[in-house]
Specification:
- The complex is a heterotrimer of chains A (about 150), B (about 500) and C (about 350).
- Helix content of chain A is about 75%, strand content about 0%.
- With about 150 residues, chain A is mainly alpha-helical.
- By secondary structure, chain B is mainly alpha-helical.
- Chain C has two domains: about 120 residues, Up-down Bundle (Four Helix Bundle (Hemerythrin (Met), subunit A)); about 230 residues, no CATH class.
- In chain C, helix 7 crosses helix 8, helix 8 runs antiparallel to helix 14 and helix 12 packs parallel to helix 16.
- Classes of the chains: A mainly alpha (about 150), B mainly alpha (about 500), C mainly alpha (about 350).
- At the A-B interface, helix 2, helix 3, helix 6 and helix 7 of A face helix 7 and helix 8 of B.
């Protein structure tokens, strides 16, 4: 089915996102949750960059058509295609999602760092990083106090 | 609105750049707080930066009063090439709310931090607080969808650690903060995925440009999916039932300064963004948006108002009662929004403002008393009303507003909501408001009874009156609540203008 | 349509095989309970993503993902499991059911929606044809940098990048609030560092440090002309410090790169960035409008041949504006990453008698 072929990229990226989300919700270990969150966030990046790809395009760094690199690029493609979709004789991929994902990657690592530091403090306070055991300890502490 | 024009008291050169300075002021303040030599300096920087932010917000409000909308192109590049700030009455109102609460919280932090955060960390704490404020102010001013995500994350990332600092009082702050981090990040990432779908369909990130382009694309599944993901993502951030699981822990165990600031601003900003997308970027008359508002948002909001009020009744810890009550109040705001009429949105916005004032005062009063009573259960606070009369009377005034007693601001907003519901023929909302108000009477009444009328249990510390530094901002909030209950012309006209702006800003 | 599919056929094969690898890795991460294995698999995942980004014509993103995802994230995660536990408890089957159903439901909805998107690689899709096309057409004239991604990142959407620097600054503040500044290690006796035992490691590290710093500076200043920029360079500088700390011990590194200095560095970087914007305001431009960075008198003083060809017009404001903000980003990112590392590395590990690390 041609639709599946032309959109296969997106479908696989969706699968990766869902695996990441599954890891977050299914694991009780705080560290593993952060890893799942990281997988989820990077997969969002994959989605945006899939949107940005232009067939036959090159990285969005201006290439001079007159020098050898530019000519090699132009030679690979159909001239009519280049004339229609290219800028100054070269076809480029879309730069805007690249910028967005640069930001998203940095946001992702920032979240990871803060989340892990909280997890380390949880370990120090509770002795464990498993969500079930933490909840258990809280419940028993509450039960131990007089109402 | 004349009120704001007369407050236009800044040199025109400064006022022309107020949108940028609104965000940059607290940001520079945060950097300065890190570099400050001691915590006293950090506090003064915090107060100064917050006052600057209020000043800028007033300038912007004055400009909006004259011109309708303030447009500011960052970097000198007009949209859609560059990022544009677009502040209409709704944005100006939110900016005023956030910055005013910010000033009061900053004033409170002088004393409020002493009992809860160790001295060496005060600089970091104030920096984190200012960063959160900068993020929220940027969120309500921006006209670019991805920029909104960046500001959403700026305001959230500092907050997670700030909440976790509450572990010195109660170690449950740590798993609560972690939970908030996971839920908040999933929400933000869902938002980004939604924006990605919108970008794929329209090719632009500027909100006004997106609105113009999707007017013809309503059948596209990608656009519908984009809407769904944006709404779920923002719903997580705004603690819409049933995605509110993170809120009770986060608000209850956080240090008082953070509980004060967050309860009054964080969810409100997310609701603002939700309204912005639902009404300005998307057209509420489109099928799927209308279905969402009527069949998803309204029932969930109603469920929040009732279920969380019941949970508040059953909750033995005082701060958690207030936290559950916050989720219930968010339900009221969303019920107003779901009516999709100017009156309904106006009522929702009015309640948003009222709740911010009340909740901030409640948490501030608790923080003031927490310096002496180091406990969390309601029973341990019994009798505090007699030992700390000034603090607790302010608490009582705000709590009365929460209950919706006549002559309070809280009553007025509920009245407006019922009015709007009746004029939109949604009588069931009136029933829900009535039932949840009754429930509200119960849990607030329980709090007030314990605080004022129960005898103090033996063995617990006596409450001590909060110091002046806490009483001043506290009473400003309580008096504002009282004043607006009697003469609500200012907030009502702001809310109305905001609602009109939300509907009117269509290309 | 056939021309299109022929053109993307070759890279499509590589693209799909890399995606298949990513799927396998993601499933492996989901299944393993040994956290060290999960972290290393995560590192490989990031690296394969970086390769995929290269195939997708996104060298800047690939660079950042490799350095940040495979580099710094792995280090922070390792630091975290050294301070907590090395393996996760088994989740019961019931606990797995609800998330699996939710993931399948949401995934199904997403696939349904995604099939409505324009075909992969289509140059006429709205995403590729609207604002982005304008960037490609005007950026090298208006801004003057060949790297369009840098032009968009630093100039057109420079405000977003300020936000990004602020985010990493906020993260450093958050981690410092939680874990302190590494002062905990100042008092306790550090174990013999690796450099004492393994001569090869010590000598090689000493050789690498200046080379990596040089490369980081190259990436920083070359970011206008090729892939690179402030973020990648900042993380590289942080990685140098981390390498030094891993080989020679944290105390040695802290004597060279003091925590207080690092703490202030992050704030100074953001101040520099915002400062550039404020200078533009003072000179009657909008915030971050680099064309107003220099008043006309100063701009007239700049010799025309400063950056090469005197006949080719240069946008001095844009050039220097981008130069300074990238510098600000460099300081902030490097300082933030180093202070995050100090936070994790400097935290006293759990007392003996409890399970720690592997």
């Amino acid at each position: 089915m041609t639709l599946a072929v032309t959109h296969l990229n997106y479908i696989v990226v969706v699968a990766l996102m869902m695996i990441g989300l599954f890891i977050v919700f299914s694991s009780g270990n705080f560290i593993k949750r952060m890893i799942g969150l990281a997988v989820f966030q990077v997969s969002t990046g994959l989605f945006y960059i899939s949107l940005a790809k232009v067939a036959g395009g090159t990285a969005p760094i201006v290439v001079d058509v007159t020098n050898s690199d530019g000519q090699a690029l132009a030679a690979r493609l159909d001239p009519a295609y280049v004339a229609l979709h290219g800028v100054d004789g070269v076809v480029y991929s879309n730069p805007l999602p690249h910028v967005l994902i640069l930001t998203a990657i940095v946001v992702g690592v920032a979240t990871l760092a803060v989340g892990l530091s909280i997890a380390v403090r949880v370990r120090e306070a509770y002795g464990t990083v498993e969500a079930d055991e933490v909840a258990q300890l809280d419940r028993s502490e509450k039960a131990g106090q007089p109402a | 609105m004349i009120f704001f024009e007369t407050l236009y008291a800044a040199p025109p050169q400064l006022a022309a750049h107020a949108p940028a300075l609104l965000v940059v002021g607290p940001l520079v303040g945060a950097c300065a707080a890190i570099l400050a030599p001691n915590s006293r300096w950090a506090w003064m920087i915090s107060v100064a930066a917050s006052i600057f932010a209020v000043w800028m917000a007033l300038c912007i409000a004055g400009e909006v009063a004259r011109g309708g909308v303030v447009d500011y192109a960052m970097g000198g590049f007009g949209p859609p090439l560059g990022i544009a700030f677009r502040i209409d009455w709704l944005g100006a109102g939110m900016a005023l709310l956030i910055s005013s609460i910010g000033v009061l919280a900053a004033l409170y932090s002088g004393h409020g931090l002493r009992s809860e955060v160790i001295q060496e960390k005060h600089n970091l704490f104030q920096a984190g607080f200012l960063l959160c404020q900068a993020g929220l102010l940027g969120l309500v001013s921006t006209g670019d969808a991805f920029n909104a995500f960046v500001f959403l994350e700026i305001s959230s990332i500092g907050t997670y650690a700030l909440i976790a600092v509450g572990a010195s009082r109660d170690r449950r702050a740590l798993p609560a903060a972690f939970n908030y981090l996971v839920m908040g990040t999933i929400g933000a990432t869902f938002f980004v995925i939604g924006v990605g779908f919108l970008y794929a369909a329209t090719g632009t990130l500027n909100m006004a440009d997106i609105a113009a382009r999707i007017a013809t694309l309503n059948d596209s599944r990608a656009v519908q999916a984009g809407f769904a993901f944006i709404v779920v993502g923002l719903g997580l951030k705004a603690a819409v039932f049933p995605l509110h699981g993170w809120l009770p822990g986060a608000y209850a165990y956080a240090p008082s300064l953070i509980a004060v600031f967050l309860s009054a601003t964080a969810t409100k900003a997310a609701i603002y963004l939700l309204a912005r997308f639902a009404f300005t970027v998307f057209d509420p008359a489109t099928d799927f948006v209308h279905t969402f508002l009527v069949w998803v948002l309204a029932p969930l909001a109603a469920a929040a108002a009732i279920v969380c009020s019941i949970q508040a009744i059953l909750e033995p810890e005082l701060r958690r009662v207030l936290a559950f009550s916050s989720v219930a109040q968010v339900g009221y705001m969303l019920m107003g929004l779901s009516l999709a009429s100017v009156a309904g949105v106006s009522a929702g916005l009015l309640h948003l403002g009222a709740h911010a004032l009340m909740k901030a005062a409640l948490f501030m009063a608790l923080g003031g008393v927490a310096m002496s009573v180091r406990a969390s259960a309601l029973a341990d606070f019994a009798g505090a009303g007699r030992d700390a009369p000034w603090t607790m009377t302010a608490f009582a005034i705000s709590a009365a507003g929460l209950m919706g007693l006549p002559l309070t601001f809280g009553f007025l907003t509920k009245f407006r909501l019922i009015e709007a519901a009746l004029s939109a023929n949604q009588v069931w909302i009136v029933a829900v408001v009535a039932v949840s108000s009754l429930l509200g009477l119960i849990y607030v009444g329980r709090m007030l009874e314990a605080l004022f009328f129960k005898p103090q249990p033996p063995g617990t510390a006596r409450a001590v009156e909060a110091p002046f530094g806490v009483l001043i901002p506290l009473w400003i909030l309580a008096l504002a609540s009282l004043w607006f209950g009697i003469d609500a012309s200012l907030p009502e006209s702001l809310a109305n203008a905001g609602a009109l702006a939300l509907f009117g800003a269509r290309p | 349509m056939t021309d299109l599919t022929r053109d993307i056929d070759a890279s499509l094969v590589i693209d799909l095989s890399l995606l298949a690898m990513l799927l396998v890795l993601a499933v492996a991460i989901a299944r393993t309970r040994q956290l060290l294995a999960a972290i290393l698999l995560m590192g490989v995942y990031s690296l394969v993503c970086a390769v995929w980004f290269m195939v997708m014509d996104a060298p800047d993103v690939a660079f950042t993902e490799a350095v940040v995802g495979a580099g710094v994230s792995t280090i922070i995660l390792l630091g975290a499991i050294l301070l907590t536990h090395g393996h996760a408890e088994k989740s019961s089957a019931i606990r797995l059911l609800a998330p699996a159903l939710a993931a399948i439901a949401v995934g199904g909805m997403l696939v349904y929606a995604v099939l409505d998107l324009p075909a992969f690689g289509n140059p006429t899709s709205p995403a590729n044809a609207h604002v982005s096309r304008t960037y490609l057409e005007v950026a090298s004239n208006e801004i003057g940098t060949p790297n369009i991604v840098t032009a968009v990142l630093a100039s057109y959407r420079g405000f977003d990048t300020l936000g990004e620097a602020t985010v990493i600054f906020a993260a450093a503040v958050g981690v410092s609030l939680m874990l302190g500044f590494g002062d905990l290690s100042a008092g306790r006796r550090t174990p013999d560092s690796m450099g004492d035992h393994h001569v090869v490691l010590g000598v090689t590290a000493k050789l690498f440090v200046p080379v990596i710093i040089l490369f980081a500076l190259y990436v920083q200043f070359h970011g206008d002309l090729g892939p690179g920029g402030g973020f990648q360079a900042g993380v590289l500088l942080a990685v140098v410090v981390i390498l030094h700390a891993l080989v020679f011990g944290l105390r040695e590194t802290m004597l060279a790169v003091r925590p207080g200095f690092v703490r202030g560095g992050a704030a100074l970087g953001v101040l520099l960035y915002a400062g550039v914007g404020l200078v533009c305001i003072v000179n009657d431009g909008a915030f971050l409008d680099y064309d107003y960075l220099f008043p006309p008198e100063i701009e007239a003083q700049i010799p025309p041949g400063l950056l090469g060809d005197p006949d080719h017009p240069h946008h001095w404001g844009q050039h220097f504006g981008i130069f300074f903000i990238e510098l600000g980003v460099l300081f902030t990112v490097a300082a933030a990453m180093i202070s995050i590392f100090y936070g994790f590395a400097g935290r006293a590990p759990v007392p003996p008698g409890t399970e720690a690390g592997q």
